[in-house]
Amino acid sequence: MTTDNPSMSSQIILPQPLDDREREVFAAIADRDKELAERIEEIDGLTGLNLTVVDGGLSFISNPGFEAGEDDWTLVEGQLGVAEVVSNDRASGIKSLHLSLVAASNVAYAWQSIGAVPAGNYVLQFWTRGDGTDDGRYRVIEQGGSDPIAATPTGVTGTTWELVAAPFVVAGTGIVTVQLLDPDADTSEVWFDDVLVASAITYASLDQVVYQMYRQILQVLGVWDE
Questions:
Q1: What is the predicted pLDDT for the residue at 222?
Q2: Which of the residues 20, 29, 120, 168 has an alpha carbon 20 to 30 A from that of 53?
Q3: CATH (domain of 191)
Q4: Helix (H) or strand (E) holding 126
Q5: What is the chain's percent helix, strand, coil content, to nearest 5?
């Protein structure tokens, strides 16, 4: 079965099925229509900002929303810095990461290492908010190489949750560490939630994204004809 590139839409536009097998495939895709529509809307928001697009939405991060507390994350505190999982403020779910400092010399951050990451293009994505004045920072470290992302301010100082997405390149297969950092400022606090690290592909338009998602689904179902 061959397909045309679907037009830009929050719903995937498919050609008319020609036989029973194609009807089964289309029915399977229809069952996932809501999930795909939500994913496309998310991608639409990212492409609107000219950001890299997550390919397939599969993240290397475990416990991305801190729903399991500190599991899979290492929380680091120094002097009067506080790193904690809280439930009183979050972007989604029931929990988030909260980092707070009493003075700039304090330390508060969380990190998670991802093993055996192949060389290639990736995107780090998360939701964050500040305290009205200060923003947090983020960093990506590759073992045995330079930092793909040095400690970088999120740029989100406001108290409303915002999405941050940062592309980076892994030079070789190895361990990659993601750090979510304190703002390094006096009397400050920040929050992080829904952290994602995934392979990234940059598309020129949402049309291309929808087409690639559609193609990948048909490949999984075993009916894509190149």
A1: 56
A2: 29
A3: 2.60.120.260
A4: strand 120-129
A5: 20, 35, 45
